[in-house]
Design a protein that fits this description.
7-stranded mixed beta sheet; 170 residues
């Protein structure tokens, strides 16, 4: 939900969800009013999950089966881009997405590895984006014997960049 909020969606927005996984971000974008959403996924098992979830939630997505950034070439320019997976080359992914993102557009990248978050921040800043980085940590409560303890989950770094100078992130 934090990543969705960082996208600052608006009615009719054209959105890419790169590394769509189960399609949850793409589906939520449509349910929140985005106009056209491209769910881009290369894993055949995940593609089938996206199809099932589209049917379950009665949501229409443009499902692109293939690996980004290669499959982005023929897509229309995006207002918003969410990168849930970079395939290990964050810099190349951001550079390609930058060419597909409209001026004033927003790119959001979720990172769970030590290196991809800082690499995303550095690359976006190098392209002149206004960048904001937040890290979210969640803990769940589990029963252990006679007591309950907090069990930390892996933190997620959320890198948000707005293309173009002089724009404020909200």
């Amino acid at each position: 939900m934090i990543s969705l909020a960082k996208l600052q969606l608006f009615p009719g927005a054209l959105v890419y969800d790169i590394g769509a996984g189960t399609g949850s971000v793409a589906i939520e974008c449509r349910l929140l009013g985005a106009g056209r959403v491209f769910a881009i996924e290369s894993n055949p098992v995940a593609v089938e999950l996206i199809k099932m979830n589209m049917a379950s939630f009665k949501v229409v997505l443009d499902l692109i089966e293939g690996a980004a950034p290669g499959v982005l070439q023929d897509l229309p320019e995006a207002d918003r881009i969410f990168i849930g997976g970079s395939g290990g080359d964050v810099e190349a992914m951001i550079m390609t997405c930058d060419r597909k993102l409209k001026p004033g557009g927003i790119m959001v990248l979720n990172s769970v590895t030590l290196y991809s978050g800082p690499a995303a921040c550095k690359t976006m800043e190098g392209l002149g984006y206004e960048v904001e980085v937040v890290q979210v940590s969640i803990a769940v409560n589990e029963k252990k014997g006679q007591t309950r303890i907090w069990q930390a989950r892996n933190p997620v770094t959320i890198v948000t960049g707005r293309k173009g100078a002089g724009h404020e992130l909200g």
